[in-house]
Specification:
The complex is a heterodimer of chains A (about 110) and B (about 110). Chain A has about 110 residues and is mainly β. In chain A, about 0% of the residues lie in helices and about 55% in strands. With about 110 residues, chain B is mainly β. Chain B is about 0% helix and about 45% strand. Classes of the chains: A mainly beta (about 110), B mainly beta (about 110).
Chain lengths: ~110, ~110
């Protein structure tokens, strides 16, 4: 089955700086890569996703890049704000019978 | 509101008892997932249902855990002879297409085994 590794486990950045979270996956057949944000005590919510037919996707301050050859993908948050503080999870999925496999999460802390 | 609904929101049970956790997915969603999240930890995959296909049970931690999905809609996760290490938040999610769309999560069931 799929295995997703996520780094770092904790990331602390100054407000206004950029944050980058990286994930690798093992199954070359995986073709869908979402990112979820989980605030304390709340359910995970999708913030951005990318499919294997594109290499980059942007949505305002958030971007995701995908390198299929190297089997890794990254989340980039620019101009970080206090409300960006949360746990972020990457995930990978092969279309079909397999479920959505998550990384172990990154606790992002935005320092004022 | 037509989101994913889980019940109960909290459950305290004695060690050795059986528990049933319920998930009502978004109407029309064919994919349904169960995950377990221990305090401060990640999302541990348990089981995945997709339409009428046989479920992917590869994440169930032991034979004390089972799940079913009746009529392609409501799902029940059953834990038999609960142990203290089963204490966690159990999250259900559903999505509309086979592996290619957003999974919406329920609010979770916080299970405490005492």
């Amino acid at each position: 089955g799929e295995n997703v590794e996520q780094h770092p486990s904790t990331l602390s950045v100054q407000e206004g700086d950029s944050a980058v979270i990286k994930c690798t996956y093992s199954d070359s057949a995986s073709n869908y890569f979402p990112w979820y944000k989980q605030e304390l005590g709340k359910r995970p919510q999708l913030i951005i996703d990318i499919r294997s037919n594109v290499g980059e996707k942007k949505d305002q301050r958030i971007a995701v890049t995908l390198n299929k050859t190297a089997k890794h993908f990254s989340l980039h948050i620019t101009e970080t704000q206090p409300e960006d503080s949360a746990v972020y999870f990457c995930a990978a999925m092969q279309g079909g019978a397999d479920g959505l496999t998550f990384g172990k999460g990154t606790h992002l802390i935005i320092q004022p | 509101g037509a989101g994913v609904s889980q019940s109960p929101s909290n459950k305290v049970t004695e060690k050795g008892k059986d528990v049933e956790l319920r998930c009502d997915p978004i109407s029309g969603h064919t994919a349904l997932y169960w995950y377990r999240q221990s305090l401060g930890q990640g999302l541990e995959f348990l089981i995945y249902f997709q339409g009428n296909s046989a479920p992917d049970k590869s994440g169930l931690p032991s034979d004390r855990f089972s799940a079913e999905r009746t009529g392609g809609s409501v799902s029940t996760l059953t834990i038999q002879r609960t142990q203290q290490e089963d204490s966690a938040v159990y999250l259900c999610a559903s999505s509309s297409r086979q592996g290619q769309s957003e999974a919406f999560f329920g609010q979770g069931t916080r299970l405490t085994v005492v």
